[in-house]
Write a structure and sequence with these properties.
Structural class: alpha+beta
Largest sheet: 6 strands, mixed
Helix content: 10-25%
Number of strands: 21
Order of helices and strands: EEEHEEEHHHEHEHEEHHEEEEEEEEEEE
């Protein structure tokens, strides 16, 4: 489907003295699955509500296919929204819920029936036409809400944490189904979530938000593997984030020290100097026998091993005083380490990233 490009230009939203969205700029091309990711209070839901037209921006533009819609009422925007609670009418059947929006369109009874049939087929709910929402599971209700939104052929579909109320197993299955549906219909999806795994699973690109600002935008792999700030590294997934001192370029990377131990960080800005952060994902940490030598190695001691099924989470206290986490694949054998075992932790230079030390991020309370 043609159209559906969304651009946010210097977008600001204030509630009295509080700035919920502080001048963000985002470009979401037509047909993209784009996620706004962040904790409560970061401004992601307020941004979505402004795109929908439920909130008016204090400043800035909301361009839909190049036309500024910032002051246009919701019903005159070619967008539709799926909410977390689905907002289904309990007294109406599935068929009536899906067809509800067509009442205000110039659509014949026959065409309305065909569009309802096609929409329910799209979300795999053929045969559920006469059921009421109370007779459906949470996943089925979510699909009805999607069908009701898609039947109006919007250029953009906005989704406000639509899987948040579902159990973990169903949520994972519907993540895959939702991405497949988006690829099939080919329209722009803008998805709000605080769930990092959800964003990584479904998105073409992700904007990580904090305190009303965008910290980083990029494809899931880039955001995860190449965080631009300590905030992104810490928020997205599990990250070992450690205080360090950087001394600039050395041996094809950045020379850093953690306590009295020296390392070379192969990722990040090689010219970083002074107080910094270094980060490494737990699956990239190597654990070796006590006394192992070589580059980027530091002694430590096993605190405990947590069995979580496919992965073993190993907590390690390092000699400089940091506590890190290493993930090891569960190969069905006995646990490789016992609490109190001395080890050597290896941080491969290509997995170690140096970041500027911007201090801890402050997260406001409340969903904005």
């Amino acid at each position: 489907m043609a159209g559906g490009e969304v651009q946010l230009v210097d977008l600001v939203k204030r509630f009295g003295d509080f700035t919920a969205v502080a001048g963000i700029n985002l470009d979401m091309p037509s047909g993209e699955f784009f996620s706004l990711l962040g904790p409560s209070g970061c401004g992601k839901t307020t941004s979505l509500r402004m795109i929908a037209g439920f909130e008016r921006p204090s400043e800035g533009q909301i361009l839909l296919d190049g036309v500024d819609m910032a002051q246009t009422p919701p019903h005159k925007r070619n967008v539709n929204t799926v909410f977390q609670n689905y907002a289904l009418f309990p007294h109406l059947t599935v068929e009536e819920n899906v067809a509800f929006g067509l009442k205000y369109k110039s659509v014949s009874k026959h065409e309305a029936h065909e569009r309802v049939r096609n929409s329910l087929e799209l979300v795999a709910l053929t045969g559920f036409e006469k059921r009421r929402p109370t007779q459906l599971s949470g996943g089925q209700q979510q699909r009805v809400a999607l069908a009701r939104a898609l039947i109006l052929n919007p250029a953009v579909l906005l989704l406000d944490e639509p899987l948040g109320a579902l159990d973990a197993k169903l949520r994972k299955r519907l993540q895959i189904e939702l991405k497949a549906l988006q690829e099939e219909v080919g329209i722009t999806f803008i998805y709000v979530t605080h769930d990092q795994e959800e964003a990584l699973t479904m998105s073409d690109r992700i904007a990580v938000m904090s305190q009303g600002r965008v910290e980083q935008v990029g494809p899931p792999k880039e955001i995860y593997e190449e965080p631009a700030t300590a905030y992104v590294a810490d928020f997205l997934g599990v990250s070992n984030l450690m205080d360090a001192t950087a001394a600039g370029q050395s041996q094809g990377g950045c020379a850093v020290s953690i306590g009295e131990f020296s390392f070379v960080a192969g990722q990040g800005d090689e010219d970083t100097r002074g107080q910094a952060k270094v980060t490494i994902r737990p699956e990239r940490v190597g654990l070796e026998a006590q006394g192992a030598t070589g580059e980027n190695r530091v002694p430590g001691m096993i605190e405990r091993v947590v069995y979580v099924g496919s992965v073993l989470q190993v907590m390690v206290n390092l000699a400089p005083g940091q506590r890190i986490q290493a993930w090891m694949q569960n190969e069905g054998e006995t646990l490789p380490f016992a609490s109190g075992t001395p080890v050597t932790a290896h941080f491969p230079r290509e997995a170690l990233r140096v970041l500027p030390d911007a201090g801890p991020a402050v997260i406001e309370s409340g969903e904005l």
